[in-house]
């Protein structure tokens, strides 16, 4: 759930993860969503042309911040361009013309709320660090 808390029982199980209301999440084209599994599992939620998409937030090439990329449509295909080396990724399939594959996730809307199918709890806020003793 989008509360920032971590439910240990739902780690590593692919479940529908509630992110929040459509009205709120549709206000930004790209939004970083935090994963309880950490930095490399964060998700980029994209809202464009009335539809939500979700893909890994770190580029499959060298970890660039996909959420800061430009989104363009060419030949009817929506693509995000990674800001680091400008590789293209189809936001629906995650495929790049370079041959790389960005992980994408299913998104659904239920009762005006956005869900992403993911293996870890997701949150719009960073998860608290594990306390060190
Ligand atoms: S890190 Fe994304 S294109 Fe290189």
TrEMBL record:
In alphabetical order, the GO MF annotations are: 2 iron, 2 sulfur cluster binding; metal ion binding
Q: Entry's Pfam families?
A: Rieske_4
Location of the Rieske domain:
19-116
Keywords of this entry: 2Fe-2S, Iron, Iron-sulfur, Metal-binding
Classification via PANTHER family: FERREDOXIN-RELATED, SI:CH211-212D10.2
Q: What is this protein called?
A: Rieske domain-containing protein
- Organism listed in the record: Synaphobranchus kaupii
